[in-house]
Amino acid sequence: MRPKLFIEKIMPVNLLNQQVYYEHGGNPFKGLHRWYSRKPLSFSRASVLGSILPADISLEEFEYLLGLEPGKEIKLYKTPPSSVRIKKVHDYCEKVWGNRTPTILDAFAGGGSIPFEAARYGLNVLASDLNPVAVVTMKAAMEYPLKFGPDLQEDIDKWVKWVGDEAEKRLAEFFPSLPGETVQNYLWAHTVVCPSCQSVVPLSPNWWLSKTSNYAGKGEARKVTSDWYAVKPIPNLEQKRVDFELVKGKKGKESTIKTDDGEYDPSVYNTISRGVGKCPNCGSVIENDYICSPSQDSKLGHQIYAVAYKKGKGSLEFTTPRECDLEGIRLAEEKK
After folding, report:
1. What is the 3-state secondary structure (H, E, C) of 165-207?
2. 196: number of CA atoms within 13 Å, CB side?
3. DSSP state of 54
4. Would 280 be classed as within a structural domain?
5. What is the pLDDT of residues 21-62, one digit of tens each?
6. Which residues pair with 106 in a beta bridge?
7. Per-residue pLDDT reduced to its tens digit, 227-285
8. Which pLDDT does position 272 carry in this prediction?
9. Alpha-carbon gap, residue 105 to 161, rounded angstroms
10. Which end of the chain is more exposed for a tag (fewer CB within 10 A), N or C?
11. Is the pTM of this model over 0.90?
């Protein structure tokens, strides 16, 4: 009969909660594929070790085997266990299981956090999942790197560059940029047709583009050195549409932009709030039932209202759509 295991005695939950806080947004698996229920690597590591180590080891020893050190801020998800720690884990496994590298089975492995941490300790791993996406993700993150080693990275780098170059070449006409500029993002809004005046209305709870500020100097000498950006919807009833004007300037009072014409608040010009729309051309309320009608009476569509770009290595700038941007969109619609 096996001895009692550490996970059956105690788990350092508060300490692990801190590790999960460090890990938020930084789990390396997140860049491989989005997985909505991905388990934190730090908790997964603790679960694996707690399930194979004997209960009679101290909490301090368990934390050491996890990779933590007193007085040091260690981020477990970034820190593979050292060879010394791995050997100690294997020594304990031999005493508990009669095998230095027992097999860890995860029949519902999902994003692969538990198998990944088990593999970090050199344990045998059997992982499966009904979802084929999960299986492919685990193969890419664990099986192939362990099987092919550094040569795999060289092949990946080669083919990533090839795909990137080919995509850039084939899609260049759909994403035009002016000389010296590189487009980063296109900003779109859903649109509906106003039931009262038949205007195409872009929907947004506000029209902010960027509220990033840089500060120079210290104390009272501090000043904002970068502009805030937004767009302002301009009614155009004659042509049954809404146009846009770019607004940029330094931070004003509270959440406003300081302009020559006074303070501009992009939230005041919202065209939808709590699911209810408002037409800038005729002022009519556009009910949510109409916007979401299954019969599509609202003629739900989309409209580009801003473009984000960079000049060289400069900071992000914004503009309303230019003719080259609109031409790229027309080409994409023709060839889709």
Report:
1. HHHHHHHHHHCCCCCCEEEEEEEEEEEEECCCCCCEEEECCCC
2. 13
3. B
4. yes
5. 888 766 666 666 666 677 889 999 999 999 999 999 999 999
6. 127
7. 899 999 999 999 999 999 999 998 888 889 998 889 999 999 999 999 999 999 999 99
8. 96
9. 36
10. N
11. no
pLDDT for 224: 47
Per residue in 133-174, pLDDT tens?
A: 889 988 988 889 888 988 998 998 999 999 999 999 999 999
* Residue type, position 260, single letter: D
| Amino acid sitting at position 284 | S
The answer on 295 and 218 residing in a single domain is: yes
**Rounded to whole angstroms, how far apart are CA atoms 16 and 32?**
24
In a domain, 48, yes or no: yes
Q: Read off the pLDDT of residues 209-218 as tens digits, 9 standing for 90 and up.
A: 998 765 455 5
Whether residue 245 sits in one domain with residue 125: no
Is there a single domain that holds both residue 140 and residue 186? no
What span, in angstroms and rounded, lies between the C-alpha atoms of 102 and 89? 11
Classify each residue of 63-100 as buried b or exposed e, where b means 16 or more C-beta atoms within 10 Å of its C-beta: bbbbbbeeeeeeebbebebeeebbebbbebbeebeeee
Whether residue 61 is found in the same domain as residue 136: yes
Q: What does 224-287 look like in DSSP terms, one character per residue?
A: E-S-EEEEEEEEETTTTEEEEEEEEESB-SSS-EEETTEEE-TTTT-SEETTEEE-TTT--EE-
Q: Is there a single domain that holds both residue 126 and residue 24?
A: yes
Q: Please tell me the total number of residues recorded for the chain in this structure.
A: 336
Q: Which domain holds residue 245?
A: 178-335
67 assigned to some structural domain? yes
**202 and 111 part of one domain:** no
Q: Classify residue 37: in a domain, yes or no.
A: yes
Same domain, yes or no: 247 and 317? yes
Contact 210, 318 (CB under 8 A): yes
Dist CA 90 CA 216 (whole Å): 55
